[in-house]
Amino acid sequence: MFIIRLMVTPLPPKDPTLRARARGTTAQPAPRFESERREWAHDGWDLPEDDRLVTREVAIERPRSVISWNQSPDLGFDRALNPYRGCEHGCIYCYARPSHAYLGLSPGLDFETRLIARPDAARVLERELAKPGYRVAPLALGSNTDPWQPIEQHHRITRSVLEVLRDWQHPVTITTRGALVERDLDLLAGMAARGLVEVGVSVTTLDPGLARAMEPRAPAPARRLAIIRALSDAGIPVRLMMGPLVPGLSDHEAEAILAAGRAAGARVAWWAFVRLPGEVGALFRDWLERVRPGQAAKVMKLVREMRGGRDNDPAFHSRFRGQGAYADMVAARIRVARKRLAYEAALPPLDCSQFRRPPRAGDQLSLF
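Given the sequence above, the corresponding structure tokens read:
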């Protein structure tokens, strides 16, 4: 009941003293686990308010464990690692926004400006891989927030994690939209040659104006297609991640996105409709009213048609694709387009047989 109430409660008044450049939202809904709530209110004095530009802040977390486990039947992986909490790309629809509430931070502006880096991630990962009871299976890198978001340029946590996975010959599936992934082509190409990696690149729209509004600090659509081409040319299996599609706003582009991704070298294509869990519903509706007011009512009508009358349907299997006549129509279009464009049904499974502890100085040499 509490989550449903959050989804229909109006956002608090915005602080007019905040100046935000290229941010998905300036709203700051209170973290749902907090007992107090803060709202901006004018003090009544006829004086100009001091304003400030919202800038990025990065805190450091020293985790005891970095592998997160799940039993979701529709994800395709049971373990994941996220080098960062929060994401500076600022995608307004991001389903990971509610996770910031567990840190006592707002899923709104805090999610894209108050970030958490985990510099010990590689060391902790290696310790977890070395446990006697560990059983290898593909690890998902970037399941919640983008591992190649802008702060990776400085912190280089994702690269250090990849180095551990390479040394242990551990298979990994990657999801990103960050151009910085090209920096690590040397690692990825070597792992791909041994059947240890596949990369999914997210493309939500080919319209640069819409992309700028929805994903203000993520690479432009043309740049993401260039990422697919660079990865493919390096021999890395690439999956086009066409999502989220927003009904009534971007779903008409599905065939064009699929064609562009295939031309750039993507071998398979995955897709999903927009999901609006927790606080994301109110943030997304507020964004629609500001950026696409003429389409807001239509978009939300279609979303609710596919979600059983709600903003969000958390049920396994249906949460990605929706239900009903409209969802079925879009799915049929995509099915036909994928066949026409000769997308593969699936990428070859990653090789788990090579997993082993890397040699260390002083180890006894193998006889064979």
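Confidence is low (pLDDT under 50) at residues 1-9. Try to locate this feature in the token string yourself.
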